[in-house]
Amino acid sequence: MLNGLSLPVAAGIGLRPPHLREVIDTRPAAAWFEVHAENYFGGGAAVAALEAVREHYVVSLHGVGLGLGSAEPLDTAHLVQFRQLVDRIEPAAVSEHLCWNRAGGECYNDLLPLPYSEAALDWMVRQVSAAQDALGRTLLVENLSSYVAFVDDIIPEGEFLAELARRTGCGLLVDINNFHVNEHNLGRDARQALSALPAEAVSELHIAGFEVRDDGLWIDSHGAAVCQEVWQLLDFALQRFGPRPVLLERDRNLPAIDELIGEAARAQTLLDRLKVAA
Prior knowledge:
The chain has 278 residues and is an alpha/beta fold. It contains 9 helices and 12 strands.
């Protein structure tokens, strides 16, 4: 059993359920895996399979349903299940999104954006602190892709994330593709946002592909290969922060796992070059 490990400073891939059995049976040459935590709530065959993966690989748990930014207290039942999974799998990292998903007793199956305002920041500090206390772990908080801007957006995105990390002690999971998508959709400067982040808080980087709608809007679908501009932005981030664990995400149009490992190898090349230069 791999116990007490941190994420390797290497390129990993998101492990999705269609590839789970293959990973257990063939043990492909992946540096580490990240899984969506909610797929393994409640025990049963799924979490037993994840334990089998955990015997041989470093695993990270990536939450997609907690809704840290929802304007109501965190869902206690969700937190209990998340904590049970954390205690059972002993992941190298635990992460969630800077988003909301609940209001008026309704839960929405989406990662919805919140305004970058002083009031939202104060609330996020409370919510992230509560989540960390409940999970017994430092939480990595991920920046979000967005398709709308708010009149209350008075704090630049990078500065919002930096202050959240400073006030809660949380880590930052920096999604490079999300910054790239927001630059196109909302006119935000991705490099400026990255430059505002404190290197000491950045614990992990995500890369993924997006899709373009007929109306020109870019959608963070995780359904395509990583584009050249995101690779360039990843290189910029690594130069800014130094070597960090990099995770390739793919949720739709899922290719063979060997193809994903091959794509992640490009991120590994960037990491290796940085290590040699150092």
